[in-house]
Design brief:
With 59 residues, this protein is mostly helical. It has 2 helices and no strands. Helix 1 packs antiparallel against helix 2. It comes from Autumnicola edwardsiae.
Length: 59
């Protein structure tokens, strides 16, 4: 299985999206005292995921 740069950017984007969703859910469901911080970090992961997805096809 050959992975080119676009495939790597796609997988990285998907993994970062999953980590962001997991961090937000962890903050909302388990650590309610720190939910705002967890949400900010999760949104940061979403932003990086979006940037990697935007780079697909341009690298």
């Amino acid at each position: 299985m050959g992975m080119n740069k676009n495939t790597v950017c796609g997988w990285a984007s998907f993994v970062l999206f999953l980590i962001g969703a997991a961090v937000i859910l962890l903050g909302v469901l388990k650590y309610l005292d720190y939910a705002i911080g967890f949400s900010v970090v999760g949104i940061g992961f979403f932003a990086i995921s979006w940037a990697f997805n935007a780079l697909k096809g341009r690298v």
